[in-house]
Amino acid sequence: MNGGSSILALSNLLKESENQAEKKYKEEESKFTPGLIGDKKKKTTTVEDIVNEHHQNNKKKNKNDIWDDEDIDEVYIEEDPRTEPEYDIIYRQKVTTEDIYLGMSGKTPGFHDCDEMVITIQLPGVKKISDIDLTVYENKIDVRTSTYLLNLPLPKPILENEGNAKWKKDKSELVLSLPLKKEFSF
Q1: Which residue intervals are annotated with compositional bias (Basic and acidic residues) in the record (predicted)?
Q2: Can you give the three-state secondary structure of 90-153, one letter per residue?
């Protein structure tokens, strides 16, 4: 009997500690509310408070910044009044008789098998090629005259140093032949 009473005493002891642990857990759980989430310093309640806080956060200097916001003069860039000229983009393939009749190279009529991009830009009123400022990049071209401005992103990357430009004086057309950059050449 002595062993049985020991077991009952141990069981009662464990029940008490279990009840105490559960009571303690419920007390701690009730302490946490959604109001405890976030910054305890200041609670923004109005739109003005939110805007002011946003401006203060943006004024904090980043250690990588080389100047403050006050150091920068706000200059408004006006839109360029020059008009955008009309242009056409055509893809060109270099094919041989084997490609046409025998299909030996595996080329298809799609633009992904093209070798170059031909861009024809209409510049009416421009008399000389020296009046045109042309800059060619891998992904865009920039054409400027006194009356026209064309900043054209290209649909495919090109080899910027290997193209050529022709001026057709009688039609006032600038024709650019730009070889396409190919990722894989088989």
Answers
A1: 18-31
A2: EEECCCCHHHHHHCCCCCCCCHHHCCEEEEEEECCCCCCHHHCEEEECCCEEEEECCCEEEEEE
